Structures are given as structure tokens and as C-alpha cells.
Amino acid sequence: MDFSLLAWGDAGWGDQMARGAVVTLAVAVAAYALGIVIGTGLAAMRLSAIPPLRWIAAIYTTVIRGIPELLVIYLVFFGGGAALRAIAAGMFGYEGYIDLPIFLTGTICIGASAGAYSTEVIRGAVQSVPKGQIEAGIAVGMTKAQRFWRILVPQVARFALPGLGNVWQFTLKDTSLISVIGLVEIMRQAAIAAGSTREPFTFYLVAAILYLGLTSFSNRGFGWAETWANRGVRRS
Amino acid sequence: MDFAALVRYGPELASGLPQTLLLVGQSLALGFVLALVIALMRLSANPLVSGFAYGFVYVFRSTPLLVQIFLIYYGSGQFRPFLQDIGLWVFFRDAWFCAVLALTLNTGAYTSEIIRGGIQSVPFGQLEAGRAVGMSPLQLFRRITFPIAIRQALPAYGNEIILMVKASSLASTITILEITGIAKKIIAATFQPVEVFIIAGAFYLLMNFVVTQAIRYAEYRLSPKSPAARARAEERRQKAILAR
Fold first, then answer.
1. What residues in chain B have their Cβ under 8 A from chain A's Cβ atoms?
2. Quick check: A210 and A22 in contact, CB under 8 A?
3. Which residues in chain A are contacts of B64 at CB distance < 8 A?
4. Model ipTM?
5. Mean pLDDT, to the nearest integer, of B157-181?
6. What is the mean pLDDT of residues B158-168?
7. Which residues in chain A touch residue B172, judged by CB atoms under 8 angstroms apart?
8. What pLDDT digit, counting tens, does each position of A61-99 carry?
9. At B186, which CATH number?
10. pLDDT digits (tens, 9 = 90+) for B55-104
11. Which residues in chain A have their CB less than 8 angstroms from residue B55's CB?
């Protein structure tokens, strides 16, 4: 193993790998944010009184959680590209080749999966808010919005935090899959460097260490967040 | 939507089904043995032994499976002369071996935590009672620890099996033609991603449905049939879903 390959600047791959880590983090944050938006919407649908909404949400979470992310990525990448070209040809008469924006494609694919998992987390958290508190809110004359913001949101956020921490962990790890469609994040950068230096082990090891660093660091962040969210809560 | 395509690609995708099942089956079997060893190491009183097990689990749970697969399959190439000298190169140049190895190590790490949780859930009084009537350590494990732990761990392990079915799709990145690998090949050749996705997705959903039902049945058979025990089983299932 030749660690001088990891030098900064033109002599080595250090700065490229670091840039890959930044891209990984950016996709992960974007996908996670999208996932929480989807998850909140679907959790509301699953808890809704209207059966078709419940069914749609249940089907979405079952399908997305049961199918490999890689397959979803291939569908969106190839299918989305074809759809985009069809629209361009049909509406604008453009016959050339259009590539999908891969950052966006990746974010949507990983976000769709994060959304399915966070749906279950958020639904569980909503259900663990005692019903009596909502009734108490009604009794003192709170409006629906007040009950939502004052009773549900603060507690659901706290209950959902550990589960959402899990979702973040595998969202971060799942971003590695986007490398198969060519987004230059940690994995893809490692593959490029491995190919040109013929030191695959060195660079995949560096990739592993970068992921390890990112997960450890964010784990600690979630640990702090939980401590902060649970301040003043009576412990049994 | 091209319905004829569903018929046309069905058989080809189905030919990847045995590969996926074999990949998952081999890795789960080997991974379970590894997980038992790691779980017992983690519970060991020797800090070196438990520390090693902790490190193993931590590293494998904190890095993407894709990195693990590439590190083993492509990474081993860097040490080819050495591996050839000690006669291990025949294994590492084989994509199937590398995929099974990576999946085994990965599921071993996750499963060991599930088993550890199960073992730790065994009430101390029950072990005490076993010792009081003179059971040997082996008898204690076989008659008390194992049955209680497995019941506690079953829903979480069912989840792990489903995650492994999904994870096996990553083997396609190192040339193995299981369902996802074949799907990608057909998509690249025909540009009918939606049709191929529907068939391949249906295969995965079917496998996961069978796994879910099998685990449910196993839980039913292993649980005491009192309503209270049923309620506890349901609670465990809910918790297992939230865990991932």
C-alpha cells in the first residue's frame, strides 16, 4: 500500500476523495430531507380516516421496503432518461440525447427509500402520544392547528428521534449505491482512483474509513440531539 | 405499457431467482454461525475478546455493504502475488465467493446484535432456577437461554432476512447475474425499464412475502398460546419494524 497516493493537490488523490465525501454528505442530507417530507406525508395518510389514503401509503411503504434500492435506481435512471427524452422530442422537437441530472436522480431514489422507512418511525411516534393529551387539548378549546403544533409536534419529534437516527444511518450508507449511475461521490471517486493507480484496496479502504468517520460523527450528533430533546423529561 | 414484454422477459428474470436464493441462503447460513460466535464473544468477560467483537460489529455496521464487497473483490487484486503464494487466489478471483464472503460478514455483524439482544432478554431468575436444579451449562443454554432468546429475536431476524434478500442485489455489481443483474442487462439492451422493473420487483416482493409469513408462522409455533404472550409477540414485531 502506498499512502503517498493520498497526498493533497496534483500529486495525490487526497483532495479528490475529500470532495467525494462532501458530495456523499450533500446527497445524504438532500435525500434525508426529502425522506422526512415523504415520511411525514405518508404517516399522515396511514393515520387518516379515509381508507384509500391508508391503502396507498401502505402499498408504497411495503413495495419500497421490499424491493432493492439498486433496482429502483436502475428504474429511475433508465426510465427517467427515456421519459425526459420523450418529452423533449414530443414537446420541443429536440431529438438529441439528454442525460438525467444524476445528483437529483440519486436524491430522489434514496429519498424515496428513506421516506418509506421514516413513515413507520413517524407513525409509531404519533401513536405513542397519549390520547388523553389530545382530549385535554380539545377540552381547553384548542383549535386543530394548536393541538397539532402544541401537543403532537413537540412529542412526536422527541419520540421519533432514535428511529430517524437509524434512517439517517442507512440513508448515508445507501448513497454509495448512486455510484453505479456515475455520481462522483466517495465510492465512484475511489473506483476512479483505484483504476488509475491499480491500488484498489488502498482506495476502497480509504472509502470505508470516510464512511466510518461520517457515520460515527453523525451518530454522536444524534446522541446529543436525543439528550437535548429529552432534557427535563422524567426518567423511570 | 407493453404487456407482451412481461411475458417475454419473465423467464429470463426467473432464471436469476435460484441465484438470488442461493446467495441469500448460503450467506444467511454461514452468517448465523458467525453471528453466534460474535455474540458469545461480545458477552465474554475478557475485554480483549468482547472488544474485538465490538469492533467487528461496529465497522461492518458503519460502512456500506458496497464498500465491503468492492474491498474484498477488487481490493484483493492488490495482493494477488501474495494470495497466489498461499493458494487463496482461487477463492478471491471468484466473484461468487467474494459476494458470499461479504454478505456473510455483513449479516454476521447485524445478526450478532440481534442474538445478543435475545440472550440478554433471558430473565436471570430462570437461569438461576436451571442452575438450582443442577443443569449443566450446555443444558442451560439448550433448554433455557436458547428457546427464550430465539423467540425474542425472531421478528428482528425476519427483518434481517428481508434486508439480506435486498442486499443480495449488490452482487450484481461484481458481475453476478442474479435477479437485479439480469434486470439491468435486459434494461440496458431493450430500454424497457418499467416492464422489467415490475417483474423483477414482483419476484422480490414475493420472496419477502414468503419470508414474512414463514417468520410469523414460526413465531406462532414457538410462542406460548396465552393472550398475554400473543400481545407480547405483537409488541416485539412492532418494535422490530421500527428498529430499521
1. 59, 62-68, 70-71, 74-79, 162, 166-170, 172-173, 180, 183-184, 187-188, 191, 193-194, 197, 200-201, 204-205, 208-209, 238, 241-244
2. no
3. 173-174, 176-177, 187, 211
4. 0.89
5. 94
6. 94
7. 70
8. 999 999 999 999 998 888 887 777 778 887 777 777 777
9. 1.10.3720.10
10. 999 999 999 999 999 999 999 989 988 998 998 898 899 999 999 999 99
11. none
What is the tens place of the pLDDT at every residue in A100-124?
Answer: 788 999 999 999 999 999 999 999 9
HSE (side-chain half, CA atoms, 13 Å) at B224:
9
Q: Which of A212, A24, A221, A44 is nearest to A115 (CA)?
A: A44
CB B183 within 8 A of CB B200: yes
* CB neighbour class for A50 (10 Å; exposed up to 12, middle 13-18, buried from 19): exposed
Count of domains in chain B? 1
Residue-number span of the structural domain to which B196 is assigned? 3-243
> What domains does chain A contain, in order, with CATH numbers?
3-229 (1.10.3720.10)
Distances (CA, A) of B149 to A104, B62, B120, B154, B227: 44, 25, 8, 9, 20
> Each residue of A160-205: pLDDT tens digit?
999 999 999 999 999 999 999 889 999 999 999 998 888 999 999 9
Asked if pLDDT for residue B220 goes beyond 70, the answer is yes
> Which residues, 6 or more positions from B23, have their beta carbon under 8 angstroms from its beta carbon?
B96, B99, B100, B103, B168, B171, B176, B178
Across the interface, whether the CB atoms of A75 and B197 are under 8 A apart is answered yes
Report yes or no: A75 at the B interface, CB cutoff 8 Å.
Answer: yes
Set of chain B residues whose Cβ sits within 8 Å of the Cβ of A85: none
